[in-house]
Amino acid sequence: MDSAMESTSTEGPHQVQMVNIEDFDREQDAADAALRAREPQPKVQAKLKKHKVIDVEAITAEAKALEEIGTTNWVGKINEYRSVNPKPDGLTFTEISVDQKPPRFKCIVKISETPDEFGDNVSFSNKKLAKHFASKKAIDYLIENNYMPSDGSVKFRKAPVEPVSAKGASFKSPTFASQVPDLCAKLGFDVPTYEITRSSPNGTSMYDGYAHFGGDPRIVGRVGEFKDVYGQRKLKEMIAEELVTFLKNIEKHRREEHEAEEKKRKRLSADSVHEDITAQAAKVVKAEKPRAADFFD
Length: 297
What we know:
This is DRBM domain-containing protein. Residues 1-31 are annotated as: Disordered. By secondary structure, the chain is of the alpha+beta class. Among the domains are: 56-144, Double Stranded RNA Binding Domain, CATH 3.30.160.20; 174-286, Double Stranded RNA Binding Domain, CATH 3.30.160.20. It has helices at 21-38, 56-69, 74-84, 127-144, 176-187, 232-288, and strands spanning 91-98, 104-111, 117-118, 193-198, 206-212, 223-230. Strands 1-2-3 form a 3-stranded antiparallel sheet. Strands 4-5-6 form a 3-stranded antiparallel sheet.
């Protein structure tokens, strides 16, 4: 057998051809590849990643709410208020999970001072923030409606004892708002209108406002205009204080004009009397003056 491994045999009637081993391996590999190609391939299912849905509007609202919350412990403060001012079912918290991925949370606070609910308009990334926000909104209501003082305490200080008259009526200084109608009636004006609106539409307790006298041509424009004042009642009293000052200035001006007219009238009257007296005196002197003929009678 030579190097090509090819030979012929003469033992039988047929000749046997010897094949090179490398060619055989190549042919076998090709046959196996063709067989695999005809076999069905397993299906590979791609795994789809679930992406988180980002609620931009909710995140923006939360960011604004966080600015309002700041670093104050609003939950602790409203609990302190309720313990100082106890009422049956006076304070309840209701936590709500928003059906969303990732999950978000709301908290609703109810207080016995009002049937309103607080905190359901903004969702948060965790329950703690939602609870603080709802508590702050309830406290805003309590301050605005004079249930809580605005200085950070939870109870009003006891007012000093007011003097009592003989009839038992206590003396109390009137508010500026209560003085406005009387001044207007005295000066002949209609009672002005108070225009009060929120400083921003996101539900804060900051207000803008002013007063005006409608179509009265004697007073044109706004009186007592203020911006970013905490609480409607406080803002109204501030506007009323400006109105009282404004109306009292008108009253003072009219009084000074009246006094000036009165002085002028008296002066003219005095001058007239003086002229009359002078004229009468002149007549008397003329009547009493001796005539030359009287000396020759």
